[in-house]
Amino acid sequence: MNYPGNIKKEYKKIINYGNRGMDLEDLLNKSNEYYLESNRAVIYKKPTPITISQVSYANKEKMITKAFFRTPSTLDYNGIYKGRYIDFDAKETKNTSSFPLANLHEHQYLHIKRVIEHGGISFLIISMNNNFYYLDGFDIIKFIEGNTRKSIPYSYIQEKGTIIEQKINPRLDYLSVIDQRYFMEE
Questions:
Q1: What is the 3-state secondary structure (H, E, C) of the chain?
Q2: Does residue 141 belong to any structural domain of this protein?
Q3: Total number of domains constituting the chain
Q4: Tens of pLDDT along 7-28?
Q5: What is the pTM of this model?
Q6: How far is it, in rounded angstroms, from Cα 2 to Cα 129?
Q7: H-type helices in 47-167, by residue range?
Q8: φ, ψ for residue 181 (rounded to 5)?
Q9: Residue 76: enclosing H or E segment and its boundaries?
Q10: SS3 category, 170
Q11: Does residue 4 lie within any of the structural domains?
């Protein structure tokens, strides 16, 4: 940009890579706030179970300098909707042709199975190819148990999953997808 007196100023865009992956989580947190405020559902993000092992007291402020994961976490979100327990996780991938199963840990897969076996609703919300997909736990289990692949093809996600509508409120209306799958006869 040229200013008076031919002074040139350059602007460099500062790129923060620290919170990549937070977009989906932020949309879900805002959706869950809306669901709670409108008394539609009670769903919360679970805190990550960590143990703090070292703290520093620089500038009269406590700062965690060393911590570790206490136990493997299950899924990120849980709550209740229309009398049913809900447990789900938010996953993002830049891969355009498949969802890498490395993004779904073994203990998370086992947790999905257990929730379903006990009558709960468990699923993934996957951000992929500029869409947000609801992929039900039944379909995840069916795919993993019927394949040796290390990823779920995008075609399977398109076939079995449902695109979640983005709105103003709620930001991601995933409860409408659950209504279609589980509560249509009401």
A1: CEECCCEECCCCCCCCCCCCCHHHHHHHHHHHHHHHHCCCCEEEECCCCEEEEEEEEECCEEEEEEEEECCCCCCCEEEEECCEEEEEEEEECCCCCEEEHHHCCHHHHHHHHHHHHCCCEEEEEEEECCEEEEEEHHHHHHHHHHCCCCEEEHHHHHHHCEECCECCCCCECHHHHHHHHHCCCC
A2: yes
A3: 1
A4: 555 544 444 433 444 489 999 9
A5: 0.78
A6: 39
A7: 106-117, 137-146, 154-160
A8: -80, -35
A9: none
A10: coil
A11: no
CA torsion sign, 127 to 128 to 129 to 133?
A: negative
Each residue's pLDDT tens digit, 78-135? 999 999 999 999 999 999 999 999 999 999 999 999 999 999 999 999 999 999 999 9
Burial of 179 (0-12, 13-18, 19+ CB in 10 A): middle
Question: With b meaning 16 or more CB within 10 Å and e meaning fewer, what string describes 23-34?
Answer: ebbebbbebbeb
Residues 6 or more apart whose CB falls under 8 angstroms from that of 185 comprise none
Query: What's the CATH code of the domain at 148?
Result: 3.40.1350.10
Q: Token pair for residue 154?
A: 């995008």
Q: Hey, which bits of 37-76 come out as E strands?
A: 42-45, 50-58, 61-69
